[in-house]
């Protein structure tokens, strides 16, 4: 089986051990919370207390800031296993742990780390990351939210769209314009407490990931003190770019997790379901589809781990990260669709997990840059200028 432990992918035994522990924990503690939340269309906030108790919160953060001390590969295993149980919960945790907490770790002042990062890594203050807007998603330099000086403070005006955790977060990193035009120094990231006057969030209904919160967030004359600027004025784009590669490697594991789960479900089903007096897995058409899944999952997993190892060794791996993210999302969509098909009518029933995986999968195309954006990165690395 593709999922068999034992270092098939060159992972250290400790990481395989971590995977086994975390998988058991996810199955016993998180999956029941996630399933109820999925039906109720809400993010289960209890997940953070459970993760903390289990010792699995912020596993890939340094120990000296309150994390688990694991590396990027630990993060890869974490997001794959969490996504297998629930892509929605994993989306919320990713937005909090990576998108919101990550820039605080890299660019925050000591005071900002104390006030926001430390409680975030304890799961006590939940974060969101607000970049996308109604008129600008892929086109980061096109964002319109403005930040203008008002004495010692800044006044933020604009709106953010599709913000994971947007309606439940305690704070949000908001990218805003502090200059005109499209040059590299016109964006700044602000740390905004969501309880302050002028911040209004509204949850959105989605195709999948029902156990995550995704919101439209309006910002009207939101007053932000100067000490809540992340890093320095004009550093926004540089900061965003600095976190993209790692984010793409981590998020690729969300696609991989969906594919792995769908594959294991269909492998089991093919050995049980009978038609024409045989198990359906004994039909070559079915067996080949599943064999094809196994091959592609292995390939994508190896690509993700290659990108992670390159990043950990300090190499430039923008291309490898984009390749992994691109193919992992294609894999999630393809494998979940084929797994649904091979379940026949049962696959189309809401009660079947394979149906949920099929609904959740396409989000993997979009987050951390759509597939067209990934192909652009890959093409440019080849000397092409699309
Ligand atoms: C469930 C969910 C959660 C999200 N969470 C967050 C979040 O927490 N924070 C946040 O800031 N954002 C979040 N997003 C937003 C996400 O990052 C954007 O939707 C994404 O970057 C695409 O932007 P867009 O929707 O504006 O699409 P557009 O940029 O308008 O793109 C539309 C289409 O055009 C294509 N396209 C655009 N430009 C090019 C180009 N140059 N070349 C070729 N094709 C191109 C795109 O690939 C896409 O297919 C989330 C989205 C979803 C669906």
Integer average pLDDT: 96
Low-confidence stretches: none
Bound molecules: flavin-adenine dinucleotide
CATH homology-level superfamily of the largest domain: Butyryl-CoA Dehydrogenase, subunit A, domain 3
How much of the residues is beta strand, in percent?
5-15%
- Helix and strand content put the structural class at alpha+beta
Shape: globular
Give short descriptive properties of this protein.
alpha+beta, Butyryl-CoA Dehydrogenase, subunit A, domain 3, 3 domains, Butyryl-CoA Dehydrogenase, subunit A, domain 2, 386 residues, binds flavin-adenine dinucleotide, globular, Butyryl-Coa Dehydrogenase, subunit A, domain 1, 50% helix, three-stranded mixed sheet
What can you tell me about this protein's structure?
The structure is a single chain. With 386 residues, this protein is α+β, with helices and mostly antiparallel strands. It folds into three domains: 109 residues, Acyl-CoA dehydrogenase/oxidase, N-terminal domain (Butyryl-Coa Dehydrogenase, subunit A, domain 1, Orthogonal Bundle), CATH 1.10.540.10; 108 residues, Butyryl-CoA Dehydrogenase, subunit A, domain 2 (Beta Barrel); 144 residues, Butyryl-CoA Dehydrogenase, subunit A, domain 3 (Up-down Bundle). The protein is 50% helix and 15% strand. The strands form three sheets. The protein has a four-stranded antiparallel β-sheet, covered by helices on one side. Strands 1-4-5 form a three-stranded mixed β-sheet, covered by helices on one side. Strand 8 and strand 9 form a beta hairpin. The radius of gyration is 21 Å and the shape is globular. The model has no long low-confidence stretch (mean pLDDT 96). Bound molecules: flavin-adenine dinucleotide. The site of flavin-adenine dinucleotide (FAD) has 22 residues, from helix 4, strand 1, strand 3 and helix 10. Flavin-adenine dinucleotide (FAD) binds next to helix 4, strand 1, strand 3 and helix 10.
């Amino acid at each position: 089986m593709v999922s068999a432990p034992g270092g098939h992918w060159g992972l250290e035994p400790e990481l395989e051990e971590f995977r086994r522990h975390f998988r058991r924990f996810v199955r016993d503690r998180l999956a029941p919370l996630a399933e109820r939340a999925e039906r109720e269309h809400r993010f289960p906030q209890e997940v953070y207390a459970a993760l903390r108790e289990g010792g699995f919160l912020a596993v890939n953060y340094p120990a000296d800031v309150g994390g688990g001390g694991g590396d990027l590969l630990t993060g890869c295993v974490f997001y794959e296993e969490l996504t297998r149980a629930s892509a929605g919960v994993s989306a919320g945790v990713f937005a909090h742990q990576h998108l919101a907490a990550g820039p605080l770790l890299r660019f925050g002042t000591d005071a900002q780390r104390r006030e926001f990062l430390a409680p975030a890594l304890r799961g006590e203050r939940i974060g969101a990351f607000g970049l996308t807007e109604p008129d600008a998603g892929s086109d980061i330099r096109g964002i319109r939210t403005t930040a203008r000086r008002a004495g010692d403070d800044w006044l933020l005006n604009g709106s953010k769209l599709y913000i994971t955790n947007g309606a439940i977060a305690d704070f949000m990193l908001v990218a805003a314009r502090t200059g005109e035009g499209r040059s590299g120094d016109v964006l700044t990231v602000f740390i905004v407490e969501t309880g302050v006057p002028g911040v209004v969030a509204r949850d959105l209904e989605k195709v999948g990931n029902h156990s995550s919160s995704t919101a439209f967030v309006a910002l009207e004359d939101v007053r932000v003190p100067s000490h809540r600027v992340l890093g320095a004025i004009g550093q926004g784009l540089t900061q965003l770019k600095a976190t993209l590669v790692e984010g793409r490697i981590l998020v690729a594991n969300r696609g991989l997790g969906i594919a792995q789960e769908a594959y294991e479900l269909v492998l089991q089903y093919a050995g049980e379901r009978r038609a024409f007096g045989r198990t359906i897995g004994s039909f070559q058409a079915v067996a080949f589809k599943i064999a094809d899944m196994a091959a592609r999952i292995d390939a994508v997993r190896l690509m993700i781990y290659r990108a992670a190892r390159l990043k950990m060794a300090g190499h430039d791996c923008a291309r490898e990260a984009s390749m992994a993210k691109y193919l992992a999302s294609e894999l999630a969509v393809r494998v979940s669709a084929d797994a649904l098909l091979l379940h026949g009518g049962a696959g189309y029933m809401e009660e079947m997990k394979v149906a949920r995986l099929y609904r959740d999968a396409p989000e993997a195309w979009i987050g951390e840059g759509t597939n067209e954006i990934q192909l652009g990165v890959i093409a440019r690395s080849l000397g092409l200028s699309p």
